[in-house]
Amino acid sequence: MQVSEMAGNPSSLHTAGRSVRQAVEEARESIAADLRTRPSAVIFTSGGTESDNLAVKGLFWQRRDRLGQPARVLASSIEHHAVLDPVSWLGTHEGASIEWLGVDAQGRVSPDEIEDLLRAGDVALCTVMWANNEVGTIEPVGRIAELCREAGVPFHTDAVQAVGQIPVNLSEIAAHAVTISSHKIGGPFGVGALILDPALTLTPIMHGGGQERDIRSGTFDAPAIAAFAVALHHAVTGQADHAAHVRELRDQLVAAVLAAVPGTVLNGASLNGASRLPGNAHFSFPGCEGDALLMLLDAAGIDCSTGSACTAGIPEPSHVLLAMGVDEPTARASLRFSLGRATTSADIDAVVRALPSAVNRAARAGKLTARTRS
Ligand code: PLP
Fold first, then answer.
1. 154 and 183 Cβ atoms separated by less than 8 Å
2. For residue 66, what pLDDT is reported?
3. Which ligand 1 atom is nearest residue 189's CA?
4. What is the pLDDT of residue 141?
5. Among protein residues, the one whose CA lies closest to atom 10 of ligand 1
6. Could you give the C-alpha distances from 164 to 80, 132, 193, 246, 304, in angstroms and in order?
């Protein structure tokens, strides 16, 4: 069915509605097949932020009612704000006791620490992202999922950055709830899904028509859902080729930047191992103001990011780098380059050409700011 023909409400019983409903169900089946899970696990949402909120709050409420107070939430300290903020909110508004999991210098949580914390028997929920959106570190989610299953504790993972970059096979990773988002894989904005173990339920955050197993309400955005399924299929079937393409360019970029700008620090896990997203390059340029550098590169036609894109407007150093033990001035001097399908060798050359003079100018701006602050 063409997107332009999707005129009926998929929850209506008339023919037009039923045919749109069929398109939604086909998309659900396609997404489930690509992620190696069951169609009944797929709950469509408005994107990664809603899926994270639904999982974190919904699972907490569901479990707290069974555990009684006080209930604990284990969350990594390097989560995206779509997880970080609902977890903090549960602490301030719902009496949750929050255990922020530390990370090592590469940004990895420790499964041993989680195993110890699970022993107390008062954990309502554990949430650790599959791959970090700033430094690209891939977390040991398979092991954490096993530990949580053994302890009978729901485990949520935000896989927004992982899908399409690395294999995401939910028949191998036993997470109870997995967040995915369409626009990160080339699909439309404003649609995503929570993959929720069908054996589990959670308390909804929105009430209404109960379209998705009474867990999520709201009329389906059928055209967006259909396009999301197509994008996901391309992302999953093309993942290996995509990873090889961006990894080669990323390694080229890292080598050239380290050579062109002495003193540059590469943040995150090593390039060779299996612990880093293939399209991620994240640097600190000590002495520079990251925001100044970003603007100078922007003027040269280069898009990059300080902190996560979602918090770039806020002049706070990245919570991810601080959690990794990076000091505040160095954290402020950091930039992320994300490589995608359209990135070419010529783009890498353009960055390497523009960077040395931008770093010099940003370092001068950094000195001025430091003088104003002192
Ligand atoms: N989680 C991670 C790791 C992300 O990188 C993002 C967006 O950048 C989100 C969640 C939010 O997803 P959405 O933009 O679909 O709400």
1. no
2. 83
3. 15
4. 98
5. 48
6. 18, 14, 15, 12, 20
Q: Which residues contact 79 (CB under 8 A, 6 or more apart)?
A: 87, 127, 128, 129, 158
CB atoms within 10 A of CB 39: 15
- In angstroms, the CA 204 to CA 74 distance is 21
Residue whose tokens read 């729901």: 154
Measuring CA to CA, which residue among 123, 195, 120, 117 is closest to residue 156? 195
- Amino acid letter for position 340: G
Sequence spans of domains, the chain:
3-237, 240-373
Q: Given 126, 148, 288, 310, which residue is catalytic?
A: 310
pLDDT for the residue numbered 309? 45
List, chain by chain if needed, residues with CB within 6 Å of any ligand 1 atom: 47-49, 52, 80, 82, 129, 133, 158, 160-161, 181, 183, 192, 310
Residue type, 128: V
Rounded distance from Cα 134 to ligand 1 centre (Å): 11
* CA–CA separation, 153 and 114 (whole Å): 11
Measured between alpha carbons, how far is 158 from 127 in angstroms, rounded to an integer? 8
Identify the segments of the chain with pLDDT beneath 70: 1, 3-4, 15-17, 69, 308-315, 366, 368-374
Catalytic site includes residue 310: yes
* CATH code for the domain defined by 240-373: 3.90.1150.10
Looking at ligand 1, which residue's alpha carbon is closest to its atom 14?
A: 48
Topology given in CATH for the domain delimited by 3-237: Aspartate Aminotransferase; domain 2 (3.40.640)
